[in-house]
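Support request, please re-run this one:
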Amino acid sequence: MKAMIFDWDGTLVDTLPAITRANAEVLGSYGVAYDDAAYRAAYSPDWRSMYRRLGVPAEHVEEAGDRWLGEYRSLMTEVRPFRGVEAAIGRLAMAGFRLGIVTAGDRPVVEHQLEATGLARYFSAVVCGEDLPFAKPDPRPLLHALAQLGIPDDPGRATYIGDAPDDMRMARTVGARGVGIVSIIGDRLELEAAGASEVADSVAEWVAALLGTGVEA
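Re-run finished. Output below.
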């Protein structure tokens, strides 16, 4: 393996509760009652498609996206990496892996969070939601990151790590290895069904197993 590319929200940083709450607020403003099961079933990094499936009128989807960003920014006043993430990413960098991020997140938000968490220095490729007119599970965001990392024609030597079934579908389509991280939007069975080669409870746990070290506190 040459490259490790990560999802951001719910994989490296604990932002999913705020994301979910912001979505519930936005859906309520359009008269759509929030339901955990319906949200999980409809969830996609392609938020436009997700909102349409959840019942937001098509003519209001773009407006809903703007509302969501405002709600999320008001809720996400502090972002923290999951336990052990910073040490795990540092070990991967020291081991010589090329590191990147492919996320559906908004670039100004993600870049601010990368700096705030101290993780920005590790990643030489960061692909965000507005960078391309395609969203996961479309393979092109991941292919774009592989090109930035200098291995555009060698996806089999890359691993994509994410917490959503669409993350695994994207990796499988590209020909990269997919590693699922269990979260509120993807349990072990869902991640495996979507193509995960392996599933872990956290990035720290997975890196510890990969590099043969203990999980950091």
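DSSP finds ten helices and six strands in the chain. The chain has two domains: 3-13+81-211, 16-75.
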